[in-house]
Amino acid sequence: MIQDIYPHCLNNDFHKNGDINDNDLVLYFKDKSFLLKTKGDEFELPCKKDFTEIANDTNSTFLFTLNDVPCFLIWDKLNSDRPGFIFKEIDFFRYTNQQEVAWVSMVGFHLKDWYTQNRFCGKCGTKTQQKSDERALECNNCNTVIYPRISPAVIAAIVCNDKILLARGANWPEDWYSCVAGYVDVGESLEEALIREVKEEVGINIKNIRYYKSQPWPLSGSMMIGFVAEADDTQPIVIDKKEIVDARWFSRSELPKYSSRISIAGDMIEKFDKGDL
Ligand SMILES: [Zn+2]
After folding, report:
1. Burial zone of 22 (CB within 10 Å; 0-12 exposed, 13-18 middle, 19+ buried)
2. CA of 129 to the centre of ligand 1 (A)
3. Domains of the chain, earliest start first
4. pLDDT beyond 90 at 221
5. Å from CA of 120 to ligand 1 middle
6. Whose CA is closest to 94, among 83, 82, 103, 81?
7. What pTM was computed for the model?
8. Relative to the CA of 71, which of 1, 102, 164, 240 has its CA 20 to 30 Å away?
9. Separation in Å, CA 230 to CA 184, 195, 205
10. How far apart are the CA of 141 and the centre of ligand 1, in A?
């Protein structure tokens, strides 16, 4: 899946914001794109020494380390309009084999979004400050502490008699199908959310829910929590026509187009296809 970047290692242990060293990596975003260095047909994350304008007073935030190299988010304007540098859309991950570059940019994007959305305290409106001892923002007026927001979402591979139930979202390309998924609501357990979402979207009851794997999905700030569930395939499928345009049981020999293993949905469908689910 997208987060599996071995032998590379992203470590999100918090380090106190400090000076940026010459070889430290820098992430620089413009809307939904980020800056990369070109190197033949490949790309590299730029580092501090690529930019003479980065100094000790440059507005920056420590994010995490990649292979023990600190990575900083740069807020001040950088001179990016020059040969050897290119902005890539954040969905770069869909077509690159440089998974570590894609993953670092996605996790950095999540944090950049969170910092940007919490510049002011939601309770009293005072400008927030970065906490010095953990990854959090604090309001010095009312003492509110704000942590990065992660929204839990559940996703299910629903199986019965060597078939899998897949649905097609209203805005998806034709012929593409995936697993039923949805956000967990306030006061719900993950299992309750899954039962509700499946009932709402395809109208069937599921049973024997068991945990599969999870996947952070930084672009929407979500945590996808995957389950395998069973259902009686004689139940009528009743789709929620707002979000879903079709849902069907598929056997292994007639699987439709589905996403690659970078997503947990693709991972589960592929496992079903191989007979391992
Ligand atoms: Zn406040």
Report:
1. exposed
2. 11
3. 10-116 (no CATH), 118-148 (no CATH), 151-273 (3.90.79.10)
4. yes
5. 8
6. 103
7. 0.92
8. 1
9. 20, 11, 9
10. 5
Token pair for 50 = 């690529």
Tell me: the pLDDT tens digits for 265-277? 999 999 999 999 8
Encode burial over 53-89: b for 16+ CB neighbours within 10 A, e otherwise: ebeeebebbbbbbbeeebbbbbeeebeeeeeebeebe
| R_g (Cα) of the chain, nearest Å | 22
Q: Which uninterrupted H or E stretch holds 202?
A: helix 190-202
Distance 29 CA to ligand 1 centre (A): 28
Residue with tokens 């945590």: 223
d(C-alpha 243, C-alpha 171), whole Å: 8
Which residues neighbour ligand 1 (ion) by CB within 5 Å? Answer: 121, 123-124, 126, 139, 141-142, 144
Distance, CA 254 to ligand 1 centroid (Å)?
56
The Cα–Cα gap between 34 and 17 comes to 21
Q: Which helix (H) or strand (E) holds 225?
A: strand 222-231
Residue with tokens 């940007």: 116
Q: How far apart are CA 134 and CA 37, in angstroms?
A: 31
CA of 186 to the centre of ligand 1 (A): 24
